[in-house]
Automatic annotation (TrEMBL):
The lineage of its organism: Bacteria, Pseudomonadati, Bacteroidota, Flavobacteriia, Flavobacteriales. PROSITE patterns: PROKAR_LIPOPROTEIN (PS51257). Residues 964-1106 form the Alpha-2-macroglobulin bait region domain. It comes from Phaeocystidibacter luteus. This is Alpha-2-macroglobulin. Transmembrane segments: none annotated. The keyword Signal applies.
Amino acid sequence: MRHSLRILSILLSLFVLISCDSTPEIPENDPGFSDYIAAHTAGVVSSSSSVQFHLMQDFNPGVEPGTAIEAELIEFEPEIEGTLIWADASTIVFTPAEPLQSGESYAGKFHLGALMEVPSALQTFEFLIQVIEQDFSVLSYQLNSMSNTNTKLNKLEGVVQSADVSNIDELSESITFSGLDGLTAKWETTNQTNRFTFTIDSVERREEGYEVEADFKGEILETMRIPGLAEFTVINVSVEQSPQQLVRVSFSDPLKTGQATQGLFTLNGQDVTSVNIEGSVATLYPSSRLNGEVPLIIREGVKNAMGYSFPKDFTTTVQFEARKPEIKFVDDGNIVPMTGKVSIPFQAVGLKAVDVRVYKIYTSNVHQFLQVNSLDGSNELRRVARPIHQQRVDLTGEGINYSEWTSFAIDLDKMIQRDPGAIYRIELSFRKSYSLYPCSEDETNAMSTSDDGGYEPNPDQFYAHYNDYYYVQGYDYRERDNPCHVSYYNSSRIIRKNVLATDLGLIVKGNDGDYEAYVTSLTNATGISGAEVVFFNYQGLEIAKATTNGDGVARINMDGVPFRAEARKGGQRAYLTLETSRALSVSNFDVSGVDVSDGIQAFMYGERGVWRPGDTVFLNAILNDKANPLPENHPLTLTVFNPEGKQIYRTTARRGTNTIFDFPFVTSREALTGSYRAQLTVGGKSFTKYLSIETILPNRYDIEVEATDEVVVAGTQSYLDVHAEWLTGAKASGAKVTMEGRLTRDYGAFSEFEGYTFFDQTRDVPNLSNHQFFDGSLDQEGNARVLPQLGNLRYAPGMLRLNIGTRVFEPGGRFSINSTSVQVAPFTSFVGVKMPETNDYGYLETEKKHTLQIRTLTPKGELTDGRVRVTISRVHWSWWWSARRGRSTYLNSDSKELIQSQTIEVEGGKGQMTFEIADNYWGRMLVEVEDLNSGHRTTSLAYIDWGYGRDRSGRGGGESVSILNVQTDKEKYNVGDVAKISVPSSAGGRLVLSIEDGTHQLMDKFVQTKDGMTVYELKITEEMAPNVFAHAMVIQPHDQTANDLPIRLYGIVPIMVEDPATHLTPVIEAPEKVRPESTFDVTVSEKDGKEMEYTIALVDEGLLGLTGFQTPDPWKYFYAKRSLGVRTWDMYDLVMNSFSGKIARMLAVGGDAALNPENEQNADRFKPVVIHLGPFKLNARQTAKHTVTLPNYIGRLRVMVVAGSDEEAYGQSFDNIRVVQPLMAQLTLPRVLGPGEHVSIPVTVFAMENNIRDVEVKLNTTGNLRLTDGTQRVRFTETGQKTIYFEADVPEALGLAKVTMVATSGRERSTDEIEISVRSPLQMQTQEFIIDVDKNETVEHAAAPFGVGESNSLVVEISSLPSVNLGDRLNYLIGYPHGCLEQTTSKCFAQLYLADWVELTTDQKGDAERFIREGIAKLRRMQMPSGGFRYWPSSNGADPWGSTYAGHFIIAAEKVGYNLPAGMKDGYLRFASQQAKSWNSSSYYTYNNDFNQAYRLYVLALAGKPEIGAMNRLRNKSTVSRQAALRLAAAFALVNEPDIAKEILAKEWSRPDANYYYYCYGSSTRDLAMQLETMNAIGNRSEALRLSRELAEKLNEGYQSTQSIAYSLFSLGQIYKESSSKLEVDVTINGELNQVNTDNAVVRIPIEDFETVQNIKVTNLRDAPIYTRILRSGVPHYGEEVPYSDRVDMTISYIDPNTNAPLDVSKLKIGTPIRAVVVLNRQYSSRDYDNLALTQIFPSGWEISNQRMMVTSGTGGNNLDYQDIRDDRVLSYFSMYRSYNSTVTITVDLTATYPGKWYLPPTTLEAMYNDAVKASNAGRWVEVVNE
């Protein structure tokens, strides 16, 4: 069977498996087994099947799935090797080690007595399984020419079906093709388990035809004729009987597409009017159903692809079958209104009788039944139901045509005594003796030799949960669909239905404790008064009840969540399950909006759209809790997370009485760049705002880009207008402009058509022919008009967006940016499709009607007439995977099977198509809808399969039939208006009209329906703002005959309401123009004198323009359309009717999409002009004045006021202030400088008034920058701007530089100042000098600095132990730039015992303690709810090794006195304990291997929570590694089992290879440190000391990873803190004496000033040697880098991003675009390369283009974990695996910006835990010139 819920081989009866003469003996078991065994595998099984036993009770509660069973519970004859496990607490599964032998019978024994105590007669249960005998058949084949014009070479293609599961290897070995001269078949799987396709390429058509035979085990499966070259003939004809009859005719030649086929094909004397041609195959669809042998005639007019006609008429006969015996229910309904007798209608064909069986679900068991079922469900029936009746019913009567579907009815009252409230399950089946299907005499005699089949119910063996599959004697898998064979008559033919007889119709509405119940008569649709409605929780406890009033309504407020409602009246009951997924579907209606169901809303806003690292973020929140008032002391908690998911800030405010809350926070200068997440938690609800932190520079131009047309339609002359001016107001005359474009899907297009897709998912977005479509200059007014070249968009997937990145350059090279997007319509009209809703399991069901909704639109989204073609096809998964990679031509391959095609005329832009898919077309379904007018195409993919638990006959209607088109007379209303609500209806029904909002029901009305339309007039009130929903439900009497519509129809329409009282209009009074550094007043009032709270922000428009920031508008947020918050449940879909459609419930709630998305030594590179004030409270009719003082700034400020009030009124306003003066001048510098570089410093001077003529400009520098000439003069003859340049050099030193500019003209003066960092892009290096000083000896050494100025440092390290290279290792560890779980833990672990054995100053001790506390806090933020820890804060799961490592640290930290956050340790121990208990791994090379388990057990023992059982299990494994054994020994030592520990250490354990370390970030050094720790734990002090010396020497050897360093220092600390090693040393440095007298093992003496030679003298005053290490650190000079490449090839190139041509970057003009491309390739495939970091540092004169700021930027890479973009560098993190991502390409877009001579540093790659993987190139000098 195909469906995943049907393939379980659980057969619930014993049956005969093969022919009588070889039938194995069927075991007969005691009926008493049914008290213990619920179900088991038996009968015919696949060779790949497992054997399962389901016990009646949970025998082994709490068992971990997969736990092995050691006892021999199951045995077979012949013997089967395999494994036995617990699948769950009541299920035992035996899995054979090898596939079962084809056709073999196995006698099985289940030793129940070995599992539990049972009576002696029930010790062993016997059973039998029969394996399907493998066989194959060729279903069809065809010959397809490889060229339409040359038919010599062809593909021979066909479909083969296997009897049992098979695979490509078996097919390749078992099936051979003769006569093909060595050609081999290529096999592929299909989406049907036992079907495969074969393709043989290059099959040659020769002069004469020949035959190809397909053979299996010497038996010919099919003979296929290959026609001669001159033959145009038919080579194969095949027939399909269902889901619709068709004939496939395979020709020798490809057929001409589009040819007229009328009259060319005849079936049974009738022309075939529906013919589909694809390749060489013509598919014929008969107009009516055919039976028996039918003549097929193909006329000579058929043409091949080359235009040649079929040579002569071809006649053959095809066999169509008579209808097979089958039964089905008329509809899916389960509820029968009590209008007298209870009749169950069904239909039958080809049968003279059926068997009827009835089971009863007792009233007392209904709740238990509904816990796992809907009313029509079948799960766990044996727990709640029992068989009560069985009989044969003859299908007799006058004039019955048994060859057609005929309706019958079962009178249930004649079979049973009905019990009110009980549910009855009806099963209908048939036997072979009931069949009227015509079979030959031999077939009839063969069937008569077998038992009549069928199934006799047994109350003690009722296993409907497993679908009652049984088979009969003589069953043959290949004959399962042959009505003339006994195999046809099996349990899959049974149909089933649950029935409840009642006249009570029940509807429930509600949300969050408030519920309304409506009880209505099903018979006449009137309300029923006096009915009791009871609500139960999931456990069956009554939580509320009420009685209906005269309208049949009961209103209930309850505590708790109801699971079920029950209506009672007299002896009748109605049941309704109130699970969310069972609510009525609302996806056909416009119910989307903001979710306010909990009554709390918050609007978060900032003062701008982007911040630099180090900036203050002024974040505010406006709270509305009117609907759910919070107490004044209720907390509002703001938490901010960085791009890696780390919490960086947290604060809490109290509710109080405020409306606006202030949450400012400061980012770190070293903060990661990217998208930060601010989360406000209040009242159990969270609100999120994303914040962009990027290394930005503010714009100095104001740039506007607009399209001349609202939508740019392809092929029209649509222009882009560009305007730019200086923020000071000066014209950007002649400024250089570049514009880049990138096309993307416009997912926001046509968003008002919710649920519709307007894209062809098989097509990719086309690339622009030229990425940079404009490179020119503005005119004298600062304007340019640009015609974008969009290229050929004919194959675009749908509506597009042209994302435009515009740069406007200043004369000095710096540029301002603007990101804009415009809509692009590739087509003149568009088609959209809305798929039907899936069922609860996420797929569409076969044998049900489904409706596609279709809309045709203009590019502006307006409905328009259209003509579309809808094609529905079944596709293989391989098709979809290929098509998604752009291989859309694959659409024409055989992987796509046409099901249905139809052309539809769409009137008024609205259309629909109803379709039904037959059972044998289950699988992936592709819907293609093509607009025949414009060529646009939309596609959608769905999965379609049999309904869960449905028999083959079950059918249902489409949901669209139950839908009402409810309308209102206006789109928007004001308070006080009257809305007219029109509901389509027929006379005599009842309209239940409910007015609902986002939280509750406001009112309901009951109206008698009128014929045609029922209209209700609704008065609009204040409480309805911003919108309500009119939910209309029309209930018709069950016995009405005026129409064939469902008994219940419903519809929902939104009613938009605007209340003027909700608006605030702040009024701002501010000067239009002010001077820099001036003080002025801003006054604020409310236009209508209303009370309000507000904030003020004055922000540089240059910052706001970077993101196109719009002033925040809280009114649009709070009064945006709200989603429907009331759910509705009813039972009417289950009422039997002439139609009983069941609406699927997936996607049942309106959308919640974001409503208002807004869009070294550190220098203060620029001081952002941001002034934030408030929040303030303004009383009614008052005005407030605020005094503002500006810094030295020129440009334009935006003044923004955002306001709110506790009366739920909101608003905003803004104004602009020019900050200018007659003379202004601005400096321009790069973001950073480097030693030895040369820079041209532009100064732009503005003369804003005519009296500015002669201007003197002076520059002064301090720090590391030297000017060539500090004074220049410039003359103006008119107003405008000019740029002059000052030349400067950077000395060979690091630090800060400051440039101060003063421009004067007469009495006017303008100043500017920039502070800039001088950094080296090269990495710090450390050089060491080691001296061993004997007792009473003095040694001297002269240490000279080697790095560039200001980068040098010196440390003298004295140790009583062999040097551990402490300083170098500790500096490397703490300064390591990355911060995953392991690195965060390592940095802390290393310092835990540092003060116990290293002499530290008070400040150093404080720094270490603070570092550890911060590390603990970081780890807490990386801890998951399970207690484990994430490797990266953004990871989805806990890292096995990292969690253990972090757990070890926090436990060790607590032991030395650090406080842990509440729950941190307990959570980890809970996680570790669970992991230890469930661990089961046999491989060394996994992330959760035996080493990790042993380490985990050690940490649990260290915490005092040992898992002894898990320790013993690991101890007794034979394949434990030596590393794991050492950890395990330490664990036993900690639990006072030293003998066991020594026993473990004495054994010889395995030693895995180096790849073992890959899974635990380890190394031999780290393992040595752990071994040292083990020896110390078991008390072997001498060995521990020996190992400590060996470990100290290891730390002197080359590269060590962060974990190796950390664990080594941690372990050494445990040894040395207990050692007595007094140091007495005199250290003299340049004449200054440092006396050392300490008991610590290590002393470090840093030298503050190391720019000159330091003379060092060390005198040892103790009686033992000391070990001295002199460490010099510094940044090397340029040109000393050495390229290297280990295990990875790194290629670096620079190209023009517009042409992809190589670019010589040695000398570039200002404005030149650059793309840096790094390609990394693995040199070896032996292992994965994890945790790689690529560091790209760029010249100071190049600007990085950040894709997060400009969508047209190409900065990025494939499969990156994270990318951090800084001022001068890009850090990229990723992994390279053997199976994928073995090649990584990283691109960075840049612009040559600042004139000067710059150093291009090396690009470096490193593996953070493996020094063997690394690469680097050498640096070089480059220039940027202003030409």
